Amino acid sequence: MLYSYEAKDSQGKRVSGTVEAPDERGAARHVQAEGYFLMRLNAAPATAGSGGSPVAGGDIRIVPPPSTIVVPPPLRMSPGTWLLSKIVYPIWTGVSLRDMSVLYRQFSAMLDAGVPIQRIMGLLQSQTPNGVLRRCMVKIADRVNAGGTISDGMSEYPWIFPEYQRAAVVAGEAIGNLDQQFRRLAQALEDEYRMRATIKREMFLPCINLSALFLLPPLVFLFFGNYAEYIRQAFYPLGTTIGVIFGFYVVCRLASGVRWFYDAVLASFPGIGGAVRMIAFARFGRTMAAMYAAGVNIVSAVHYSVAASGNTYLGGRMQTIGPMLEMGMGVTEAFHRTGIFPPMVISMIGTGEETGNVDSMMDKMASFYEEEAKFKLHQLCVALGAITAIAVGIRILIIIVKFYTSLYGGMMQQMD
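Now predict its structure.
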């Protein structure tokens, strides 16, 4: 039977052609034996293989994109901007994931409708409600009108447009399917938005209880008009705790070794570690699927996906996939040798590699881990909410006992 396929070589070039094999698995193995990473495999009519130079039983034609995807490096930052990019921007950039997904959806829709790029940039400047993003679009439009590309303009704001997003745009500009790349990015950002919304929702009650742990128990001093004691026992410990957490966060952002150790402990801690690993795997899989489908060099795709995973410890283990692929190892074997992916995921990736649907299998893996992470987070947050509520009650009891002990102790001394 004749099969048509799309694949990538080791340099990231897209190749396509036809191959004759008894079934899909045989066709996939035939393409992989030629040193290609299979992307799509479909049954083809018997005449589909005409036109081209025969290579190993199939007709291969090289599609125009460059051999590698070169992402524009971020522009040189001032010391102040660099510090903000390390400490503030990872938490808040002024642009939400929802704003970004809407922007990419609009970009994709107008490109698909055939609207000229200069016209699109003008429309987006007027339609973007977010002020920070609107100013970015003005700068990007200036770069495009001066003869540059969208990815060149995005490189001026690396804290808003991460490296993996710029890589997808570069691939779209090279291949000519920029509308598809923006659509994939919008979908990936919407999935990430839902994941973050789940985390915020589940953590709401534990955070309220933790705040009450500091503010509620000392209220007994307010009943007796002792405001200074309430401030000393409520706000001082709360401020100290917030300061310690913020200081530790700054150290983690500036010292890579500390961040790696923290991520390693978090990923290995009983209970919490399972949810942390699931979230990291979901982000890795979602980004890997988008990069692979975009035609990005598979080694570069692994690099961008690792950066998007959000965990430096697990990312370091996943980063080893790239060198193994460069040595000619299969995708499934490379994932297996990391030692962090469960057998079910390895089996899914193996099926995707054999059938040429690695990107869709990565998407399925990400969806599976997102659902598992939601369930795990719910369990953890219910337990954490109960523990913090008990801690609030214990602290209230301790303060009341100390208060009345000192009160009656003072009265007894006066009677003596």
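The longest helix spans residues 358-415.
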